[in-house]
Protein 1
Amino acid sequence: MRETNREQAALWGGSAGQSWVQAQGLLELMFQPLQDLLVDAARDTSPSRVLDVGCGTGGVTAAIARALGKPCVGVDISEPVIAAARARTEPGATFVRADAQVHPFEPASFDLVVSRFGVMFFQDPVRAFANLRRAVSGGGQLRAVVWRGAADNPFMTTAERAAAPLLPDLPARDPDGPGQFAFGDADRVRRVLDRSGWTGVDIRPLDVVCAFPEPELVRYLSLLGPVGLALQKEDEQTRVRVVESIRGAFDPFVHGAEVRFTAACWLVTATAG
């Protein structure tokens, strides 16, 4: 595998990727509305072949292949999540472990590139999107959902704020580096796409209500985000203590038997010139 993003490859090939696999069902339920949005986008563009970037365990890839009856290729840098994706055996869905920033895709081999939270982790996003543009035929489309800023997504940062006194070594988020909120600045996203050769760039706010059963909240806290990753290095007693301590901070998001929050995102669209 050609690869330049070694730090992300190590992270997602290890603890982060393994956590993503363990939380696969929870994540797919939580982000189902965004999967539906990308499936509808694929129907609207009527592509003959789709590329799903940062496909994770393959939910979006499989759903598009199923809905369109056309090939959909999922690419992800993480071996654990690609192994889980391949276990789906969805007709028309295939999966490649690769760094999409440098992978030698066949030129003009796709009509549509989609991504659900998979394009914010490139070490060199201009290089990555230029590589993706070369993989798309002239007039082909990009449809990506990315997070807006941390301030717009309090649910996503509640755990680290609540856990800070208990886990003082939690790493600070770098808004300009690869990570969840790397594309929070719409102007930056536009510059990246303009410089990488995409045209007709459109970036619109997208606010989507996401939900999952309340009993899954402990699982969420134990596996995902900076706190979940940090807890993997702790002993069981510490993990239990931290999760119990921060659970109350999520009370504003608990509505009866359901945890519910608004995912504040950008819907990014562009055309390959």
Protein 2
Amino acid sequence: MTQSIRWLQDEIATRMLQKLDIVKLEPKDILLIPDFLGVHSSFLTKRFPGVRFHTAPECELSGFNLFKLRVARFWNSRMKSASVVSLDDYKKTGRINLPSNSVDLVVSVLLIQDLVDPMHFLQECRRVLKEGGLLTFSYLGPDTAKELRSELLAQQLPVQNLASPWDMHDMGDALLGERFSDPVMDMEFLGLDYSSDSILLSDAIALNLLDANYQNSAIATQLPQKLTLEVVYGHAWALGKNLAKAQDDVAYIGLNQIGRKTRNDSA
């Protein structure tokens, strides 16, 4: 996303974190993916004193803003060492550059709708989460910017579909399929009102709803004065990571799950 839509990221992050008020969790290591200069890390620092941040900065951050972000995370982490994860590398390789079982909480704000393979993202999140860790996320659902999808506008604007047009039911099923526990899903519609066509188009580009190379030019059809955002929220737990898993009706048990009883073991 671009700077023009930063306020929206902050607003959605704040709403997400307020939903954590009822969650009992004492994380020591938190992964922010993507990470951006906003209020969410201060919120997390106050809620979870002594936390250490692992950060996946937005790809669009300038060199100076990236420096400010790293300094802020180091300070927010109470001067503890923290990992920097490349979001670009994740999109290229499909791997979050963190060890397995290394973080207690993954926070992802408005990313999943831009991923071609969100299922793989869930797999990676579960891999890096410790036993009992939590994934919390938000993303844009398929009814986002439905005002731009009229037949007349679609002929004149380079409207793009979201890379991952999952509704909250799709996501809930995917979380269960990836062996997350107790998924909780929620959704709301936000209406953005505009008095300027240029600002509406700028925000649509920032949200990847229009081709980034689009040059603002006159169109025959009047643009809507509003964009609807379908915002999906969810969280789920990484539980039972050491349990046997079944595939094709066969249970697979890891070697580290097999113990040998000795005579000194109690019966």
Protein 3
Amino acid sequence: MNIFTNRLKQTLLLAAGLSVVTPVSMASTWAGTANYTAAPGATGDEAIVGPFDTYDFGSGVTLVQFTSASTFTAYFQTMVDGHFLNNAGINVPELNISGAGSGFELTVAATLNGTYSNFSGFQSFSFTGGAVNLYFDTTPDYSFTGDSGFNNGAAILSGTVTGGSGVISPAGIGAEQLDLNFSGIFGSYDSNVYAPGITGGHSVFSINLNNSSLLSGINSVLGQNTNTGVLAAVDGSIQLTSVPVPAAAWLFGTGLIGLMTAGKRKNFAA
């Protein structure tokens, strides 16, 4: 497949995902400050960052288990490697993105449950529950190969998955990179860290089934053996909002169901 065709397919996938799952009206973007020196367990040498409106995620992994012919459970973990305001990066030298050494780290862990089905060449899905947490840890120690350090800090931002649905057309089957879009409501945040309060977020992720440099050596995700499901690399960001996103609490879209399809059919692109 040539570069142009591949880029076109990815663009069409992203456009389809956004049209399916993005709420009709979006909430106001949050722009505020995170005082990590006031987070639980902080030693005072972390950082006060702001204003910013977006967390950028670095490398991450997701594992999707097909628990029956119509249900699935997904496990996801990643780390934060940047803060942005209006798409411009903010320098935070204290933020550790290596998982070892000095400074502090921010990591994300999530568990999701839902159902899926096929009809007339399309795949439909819905989410029935789950939870997403962003953790602060003053001792950087996350490890993908060790499956550790992603949820051993203090949860300073949390969301509960209460619903969501979408569809994907056969165009996504076998794509090398699939796109994931979600919006949501945060059930709680650490008021000592964030000002003003945060209640929502909107994200776009890319999911890659073939990132061997990251996926090699990973045997489990959040304690779940990778032999029990389909493993993929994940990258993305979350833009924070000052009021809940209308009509949804965590809507997930095209990438995850595309990952399911690829995993079920073993139709991974080279």
Protein 4
Amino acid sequence: MGQPHNHTHSYHTSDTKLTISIFLNVGITVAQIIGGLLSGSLSLLSDALHNFSDVISLIISLIANRLARKKSTTNKTFGYKRAEIIAAFINAATLLIVAVLLIKEAVVRFLEPQQVASGLVIGLSAIAIVFNGLSVLLLKKDSNNNMNLKSAYLHLLTDMLASVAVLFGGLLMQYYHWFWVDPLLTLLIALYLIYVGFDLLKESTNVLMLFTPESIVVDDIVACITSIEAIKNVHHVHIWQLNDDEVHLEAHLDFNTDIRLSEFDVILNQIEEQLFYEFGINHVNIQPEFGKCDSKNLIVQD
């Protein structure tokens, strides 16, 4: 059973929003690299590096968004539905890599503080806040239901927050000459990247590894199915998430009696409806059995 999904319009809308965000972030990145080199600000350069990772992540998300709507074929029976999950994994990993690089540079600058042209830092970080803010607003709604767009959204959100921190640091350096604030802000930005990146990396890894979604308790599934009088046992259960929209279940069912195929169809419809409305499982594959000698364990290790 598969519940119908029509995301063509939303995919095209997401394409447009991602494209606009890419151009905005290319502009920010170029401006911050030039400004960081001229001002000597590590936090501005770190923000530029993060912005550059945003550009890469947005391009990856755009490609994945387009691949995801390609039709299935005989040798790609699931199509490219996992492309968005792979994109989310890559983007989460880049967040962590960028964070490590920023920590390294922050430590070096702590040991060797440098004077910073704070006026340029203030101006460019203010521009970055506006541009990143627009990108965040563009993707916020779509990020709630799509792991790929969530990864792009998190990149942009953390970069906007980083720009706010850089602006604050620029003001402190301008008026109080606290140049140690520059590497401190860089370190804080990096730690925040690790915080948001790790959760997304874990979530996308769970999907790629075919782990049961955390919201689903297998024992509850079994209790639901075995509440049907005709069913004796549920075993050989596999539950996995294909992408943001599809959760699959396959299982073997032992029946108390040797029922007719038409009777099984009625029971199967009942199982599909219960699993969909109670657990959000929208693809069910059941193997009916009667008196078959096989493992009756809930989880069977092949």
